[in-house]
Amino acid sequence: MIYQRSSALFSAAQKVIPGGVNSPVRAFKAVGGDPIFVKEAKGAYLYDEDGNRLIDYINSWGPMILGHAYPPVVNAVIEKAKKGTSFGMPTQIETKIAELAVSMVPNIDKIRFVNSGTEACMSAVRLARGYTKKDKIIKFAGCYHGHSDSFLIQAGSGAVTFGSPNSPGVTQGTAKDTLLARYNDIEQVERIINLNKGKIACIIVEPVAGNMGCIPPAKGFLEGLRSLCDTHNILLIFDEVMTGFRLAKGGVQELLGVNADIVTFGKVIGGGLPVGAFAARKEIMTYLAPEGPVYQAGTLSGNPLAMAAGLAMLTELNKNEKVFKSLAQKTEYLHKGIAEALHENGVIHTINRIGSMISVHFDKDPVIDFDSAAKGNNDTFKKFFHGMLEHGIYIAPSAFESWFITDALTYDDLDETIAAVHKVAKTL
Ligand SMILES: *Cc1c(COP(=O)(O)O)cnc(C)c1O
């Protein structure tokens, strides 16, 4: 395939945009080479600036769960745009999408809309701190909750349990309030809580991790968090920015039957427009301004175009519950095909999968947390990535990302993908 125009556009972009992109992962740093500039997309396919057609396994990192340019969503946005694109005043459509979201997701009474997953998680933590009147939070290494300061924290050195900044610009003062734990290690969480008795406001977790590959929770992990939170008066935040409206209508709370205190959303809930949201039971949400004292606001929050896209998307998912089953079946089919192709060619691998999330790791051991995800052979991943791209298959340009399956994929698309894996596997 030829990627000349993409490369030229990337050069031009780098002159006026830092690194040529508006979000780092897009720059292909982890795999090398120039990123591909997309021109348009329809259903399961991307069409790039060089005229190549690619089968898309990223789908805007999740939102395009029913395919690109999905007509009900596109039409809703067009019709809404004709009537004005922003007012900074209440609109009825905000109540409509809130009612629908609250009816689809278990265990929430009220929802507040924001503009990104980052904003949702940042606000959820502030709400948890305001509600519990405590400062510290626990997060898990390898879980991503957006780029707000409290989350850009890595494990501190040996003796200390608090984290240290993993980006310049994040202060030690902020870092000391974020405690780092290992995903799927409930004993460690308990130790951290006991060392910080009475100080922890919340535990924030991706209930199915999707930002270090796809890592489902070990048996009992989420239940363990729930019970520790209940015992120690800590709020449990499920970051369902990736999993919400993807793994089930009601997200992981429904799929795995564990309740969170606050849930955050993004990605699918916006149908491809910039939307995030956080939700909880009434007694927690009443702490939020203007009802309560915890401040949170947004000029474009609840924007009519964004709400129209989100409402159209949730409406489709709500009336067609079979879609989650169909997605899971396609993902399982893909899993089997990829595993067979890698196995036949003697490529060492581990594949993780749940619902419509899947990740391929080039390591023989189970991938259950950040350390085991980081152990994968990155050189093999790079070759795999570029090999797949050469065959017109677009997967995430980093070994630490899940693939997001869209229901627009046909079994022919999946067979084409599996055939590509067979060819690429021979070169690994
Ligand atoms: C994508 C993501 C976020 C951040 O959302 P943005 O809209 O990129 O700010 C937060 N949490 C999880 C689990 C995510 O996957």
TrEMBL record:
Pathway entry: Porphyrin-containing compound metabolism; protoporphyrin-IX biosynthesis; 5-aminolevulinate from L-glutamyl-tRNA(Glu): step 2/2
Annotated localization: Cytoplasm
Main location: cytoplasm
Keywords, sorted A to Z: Cytoplasm, Isomerase, Porphyrin biosynthesis, Pyridoxal phosphate
Gene Ontology terms, MF aspect: glutamate-1-semialdehyde 2,1-aminomutase activity
Residue ranges the record marks as coiled coil: none
Pfam families hit by this protein: Aminotran_3
EC number assigned by the record: 5.4.3.8
Subunit structure: Homodimer.
Family named by the database record: Belongs to the class-III pyridoxal-phosphate-dependent aminotransferase family. HemL subfamily.
Name listed for the protein in its UniProt record: Glutamate-1-semialdehyde 2,1-aminomutase
Organism: Aquimarina celericrescens
